[in-house]
Amino acid sequence: MIIDTHCHLDNKQYLEDFEEVFERAIEHNVKGFIIPAASLADIKRAKELSEKHREIFFSVGAHPYDIEEFGEATFESINHEKCIAVGECGLDYYRLPEDKEAKEQEKKRQREVFIEHIEIAIKHDKPLIVHIRDASGDSFEILKSYEGKIRGVLHCYNASEVLLGLEGFYYGIGGVLTFKNAKKLIEIFPKIPKDKLLIETDSPYLTPHPHRGKRNEPFYTTFIAQKMAELHGCSVDEISQLTTDNAKRLFKELYQLD
Fold first, then answer.
1. Are 23 and 9 in contact (CB under 8 A)?
2. pTM for this entry
3. Hey, what domains does the chain have and what are their CATH numbers?
4. pLDDT in tens, 97-112
5. Residues with Cβ < 8 Å from 54, sequence gap 6 or more?
6. Residue 21 β-bridge partners
């Protein structure tokens, strides 16, 4: 059994063939799915899918690119029985304005919204799904200041050693691990504690080899598990069991899948 801990099945790319994608994943031993909502529209669709399929869960949050719509409405569904986390939230400095003042204002606003997500997660005792891109230093500083109060997953872990060892945090490993140019992640992968590893696809993005360039989907967790097993010198079944156990430990509602 594999749990895809980060897949955007609410994405419009699946509108025409969602049921086929879902069934294909189930047939390939993917028996749990977490949809990390990144905007209000995403939350609505993710909630609907979770109510239709027992294997699907969702989270509530605002991606750094969608913080202009962040507000009370973001968390209206936080007490829903299938809402198991806060996020996708975090810091993304990849597409900042060129103007220096505007750049600093954007970074400041992202940090403020990230902290609000953290406070909400603490209040509701839910894990965080954290997005970090080109912002490891600031992200670590913020997360470290809440250490011991929060738990969660660093989605699409970026191989930053600065982020290794955060108490209560797991590391989401996706298709990037299979890329030929993923030398840094492959090098640091053995340093990640095995009991902190999670599998994710980030579907429809970051499709693993040998399907890179095509739309990603949850059944491709198979290729990620194969690469993880290769690097750890163990079987795919062992990786599947390990990461499933880890996912259930972090997202306790996933025990419903047993």
1. no
2. 0.96
3. 2-257 (3.20.20.140)
4. 999 999 999 999 999 9
5. 256, 257
6. none
